[in-house]
Amino acid sequence: MTSPRRLRWPQRVVFAALTPLLAAGSALAAVESSELKNSRLDAPMFYQLLLGELELNAGQPGTAYQLLLDAARRTSDEALFQRVVQIALQERAGDQAVIAARAWRDARPESTEAHRTLLQLLSALNRHSDIPAAFKALLAASPASQRAGMILSLPSLFTRSADGKQALELMQPLLRDAQGQADTRLAALSTEARLALGAQRPDQALALTRNIVNEYPQRDEGLQLALELLPQRAEAEALIQNALRQNPARSDLRLAYGRALGRAQRSADAVVQLRQVTEQQPRQAAAWMALAALELDLQHASAAEAALQQLQTLLDRPEGAEDLGEATLPDVRRQLLLMRAQAAEQRGNFAQAEQQLAAVQDSEPSADLIYRRASLAARQGQLERGLSLIRELPQRSAQEQRTRLLAEVQLLREQRQWQAAYQLLDQAVQQQPKDVDLLYEQAMMAEKIDRLDDMERQLRRVIELKPDHHHAYNALGYSLAERGLRLNEARELIVKALSFSPREPFIVDSLGWVEFRLGRLKEAETLLRQAYSSRPDPEIAAHLGEVLWVQQRQDEARAIWDEGLKRDPSNEALRATLKRLGAMP
Length: 585
Prior knowledge:
Elements: H1 11-31, H2 43-57, H3 61-75, H4 78-90, H5 94-107, H6 112-124, H7 131-141, H8 144-152, H9 164-179, H10 185-198, H11 202-215, H12 221-229, H13 234-246, H14 251-263, H15 267-280, H16 285-297, H17 301-316, H18 329-346, H19 350-358, H20 367-379, H21 383-391, H22 398-414, H23 418-431, H24 436-448, H25 452-465, H26 470-482, H27 487-500, H28 505-517, H29 521-534, H30 538-550, H31 554-567, H32 572-580
Helix pairs in contact: 1-2, 1-4, 2-3, 3-4, 4-5, 5-6, 6-7, 8-10, 9-10, 10-11, 10-12, 11-12, 12-13, 14-15, 15-16, 16-17, 16-18, 17-18, 18-19, 18-20, 19-20, 20-21, 20-22, 21-22, 22-23, 23-24, 24-25, 25-26, 26-27, 26-28, 27-28, 28-29, 29-30, 30-31, 30-32
């Protein structure tokens, strides 16, 4: 008998190799009929598996892969196939992992785990053209009751892809087939709509959404899609409004609608919806918080404080508040303090604002808290102190560096330090020349310091990099209209922006302004009133008031301007308009 001391491999290596081997053997035994006593793991197979694991431990993953893959093919054992895929992934050999997963699927076509593993690998490797056939095979192998859920998860396979149109075109035939079956029709319609959204085809997404709402009026999938489409298509909003007319008590839908309006910059419209929610569900904390945020956005400090007081009352009750969503109670209390500080700052009560911020207890400095402190310092004439606070923010990652940069730019912008903000952005853009957000911000600062050629060049670069960047189209069109240049081109740019976001108030305002420049006063007034009703911003007030003023409707103009001045007495655009027209109060 051979002495243990003369074994060629250290015992620790052998035992390490046996661990996955024993797991594979157990799996092989498990698939045998309970009446059988013997496993298919005979001596030659045991030796092959052992040799494969020893090769792996000896630093020969390629040989181990081949040995174990051959064993997996001969035994059709799922645990062995999983082991081979794992070896390939550990060595970052994606193609070999796919080969092993395909062999697994071919050997065990009934195994949904094999199909899922192959799909995940194809997705991770961006081999999108192979996904439709693999997904179709997964559906065929799955129970009918699971197919709808699988179809709904399909878009996640394309999250790494920058080409949404390719994903839609690849999967559309399969989805159309699934739409012909009752048990998968809803899921297939919803998934095609989502892929259409990702492919920037809102009209196609809207048509599918209409079908869902009409065919499945008791389900929420269609209305959820309509909410996502709301900024891009006005017709989607009609679907939501119709659902609310039929069931006015649906506070969950109304809350989501209000939030969607807020994201579309239609703060005044959003407030109307959220006030109804708080009337219907006065114990819903999420509604009070969302309402307070919108009131702050509209510079309605007193209304925001009233909403925050209602939220505080709910949080202080023994039974607590309803619907905190994913937020924890400490998170909500923290946000309440920050919003109270912002409201106090808007009212000019800096001492109270500082008191609220001092009550926030973070384990480490957070960007939102630091920014509020910095803004408060700057508004009290201590800009350098505010900048110093922001510069103390951590820069441990690229995202943290970017957050700090944008916070500093925002503070400089608020304090009208246009040149300093431009220079800061210029340095950042030199390091990241394809960052569309930085380029857009730099263009806005270029306009402020009268570098208009630079502004146009930067905005056109943004459009080149991101053809659906509607803010860039709008900014360029508005800038041309403001200077009275190339007005037809300006109008085309703004109409293009509206094609991406049809009812966004600032873009509607831009279109109204270019119509005014073109001498179309009736069209201009209609558009500007629409924009002002959705968002009563002082700059929109300046434009609407001027259109009324030139029509000899001075009293109406002054009433609009007075509203704008109450919101922001120092607004540059509004005060410049009043001075130019000789209408200063």
